[in-house]
Amino acid sequence: MGIGKKTKNIGEIAEGKTKEAAGKAVGNESLEGKGKTQKTKGRVKQVIEKGKDTFKH
Description:
Layout: H1 3-26, H2 29-56
């Protein structure tokens, strides 16, 4: 996996965690849901990239 894509995916996961925590803190279910979605999306992208690397080698 390219370092740029890996960093981007990790950043997306971290941003999702932050949104989720902020949503929980203020009681905003919408923000919490968006955070969970973004976190999951980052993890899925990361798994896809790792799969691509596995098939390259």
